[in-house]
Amino acid sequence: MAGPHDLVERIVHVGAGLPTAATFRLVSVPHDSRIIGGVDVVLFTGPLQYDLARQAGELDVPATYVPVNGAGLYAALLRGALGQGVDPARVSIDSIAPDEVAEAYDEIGLPTAGVHVCEYRRPDSVRGFAGFHERLHRQGATTAALTTVRTVATRLTAGGVPVLRMTPAASTVRRAIDTAALLGAGNRAQESQIAIALVSPVARPGPADPGDYRQQELRLLLHRSLLADARLMGAMVVPREEHAYALITTAGALSRVTDGFRTAPFVGRVRAEVGLDVVCGLGLGGTARDADAHAAAALDRARAAGTAAYLVDGDGVALPLPAHGRAASREARGPGTVAEPGAREPGPRSGRAPGSRAVRIRDRLVERLGPGCVVVDAETVAEILGLAPRSARRVLQHLVEEGLAWALPPVRSTRAGRPRQPYRLITR
Q1: Which of 128, 182, 191, 193 has the CA that lies 20 to 30 A from 311?
Q2: Cα separation values, 139 from 21, 71, 143, 158, 313, Å
Q3: 315 three-state secondary structure
């Protein structure tokens, strides 16, 4: 966990009382510290700390945060009304979205004409919170300011503005801890998924000729080159068909040699060392059969599209992987080779940087829907990606975890069944 010390300690206290407390260990980290290694998931005290960590490139594991929702707003308003004479109908509120504030006030039967809201959108927006509250209070439009940010509360108090600090309710903290625990367990399961990479020459040779020593030599050189990568992944190399090979490993190991599934593996090294153009099909799955089927489908897609590699993940989503990028450029140049003039290596991979598999999925959705349509649901995603609704919901949840989508309030329907859950894609 990372964030202000007081909220971190509160989360630790709430977590210790959960029935599932024995299944995980909470480690508190100050908000100004780098995320320590060896953790399965990071739980931030709020969206500000989460976004700052993402911008700083400190996240290479799943992360989530404790939201401030209606329960935290209710508690702050009640404290103000009972203890400080605050008029709940004349306040300024930061961080919470206007529609959430409107819904909360509607539930308690209060008008919102005198309620002013400054929504949190990104870390830069926090800089305007204090001025927003101060201006309204000087104008006599509000009786108090409600904020989630400790530094904003400190500045307002020093300026004589009555302040109510909104903090997450215990029920919200419990749900956030449960969500973090599920993300951590899912990350471990995803890392341990079976991954199979099929590598085959672009131009399929004819039947092996015992007297064609050049063909035999190329096959041996390809095998040797793949073994070098296999050792890095702890993978097993198995001959597949007559001229192809299968590398069997885990999703976590394959992710590391593909820069988080952003570039095609093996292509650069094989071209540089063997002088042979190959195509790759990468498949993930919970079982060897699923991973193998996905790898075969990915290889067929890569051949048909004329691209270096394709990935078909455990949900059946297919994504192309180009042969360029940091990993491929290193392999293609080989050790000790000087880069071309003007060429520049991208910076170190940090967290879920643009170009990741999640970004590719987001971009595919935006491309199909158009930039003006950024709200989707599971039904839309299932239709575009050719998935079952259940798999589409997992894809959307993955986009949320990556910071590429926000879950909007559920849309209530007059029909029976679960409310429709829309998501807003983040395209900035």
Answers
A1: 182
A2: 49, 29, 10, 18, 56
A3: coil
CB-count exposure of residue 323 (10 Å: 0-12, 13-18, 19+): buried
Q: pLDDT > 70: what percent of the chain? A: 79
Structure tokens at 283: 């498949």
Instruction: Please state the CATH superfamily assignment of the domain spanning residues 193-333 in this structure.
Output: Reverse transcriptase/Diguanylate cyclase domain (3.30.70.270)
State the Cα torsion 350-352-355-359 to the nearest 10°. Answer: -170
Which residues have C-beta within 8 Å of that of residue 10, sequence separation ≥ 6? 167, 173
Tokens of residue 83, six digits: 């203890």
With b for 16 or more beta-carbon neighbours within 10 A and e for fewer, the 355-394 pattern comes to bbbbbbbbebbbeeeeeeebebbbebbbebbebeeebbbb
> Tens digit of pLDDT for each residue in 62-115?
788 888 777 889 989 999 999 889 999 999 999 998 988 998 899 889 999 999
Lowest mean pLDDT among 87-91, 291-295, 360-364: 360-364
Task: Specify the 3-state DSSP secondary structure of 209.
Answer: coil
Closest to 363 in 3D by CA, of 319, 418, 408: 319
- The phi and psi torsions of 95 (rounded to 5 degrees) equal 80, -50
- pLDDT top residue among 154 and 5: 154
DSSP 76-98: HHHHHHHHS---TTSEEEEES-H
CATH of 357-425, picked from 3.30.70.260, 2.30.30.40, 1.10.10.10, 1.20.120.140, is 1.10.10.10
In 3D, which of 259, 250, 256 has the Cα closest to residue 283?
250
Positions of E strands within 22-132: 29-30, 42-44, 63-65, 91-95, 116-119
Type of residue at 161: V
Q: Give the per-residue pLDDT at 356.
A: 63
Domain borders along the chain are: 2-67+171-189, 85-167, 193-333, 357-425
CATH 3.40.50 matches 85-167: yes
Show the DSSP H helices in 306-355 as ranges: 326-333
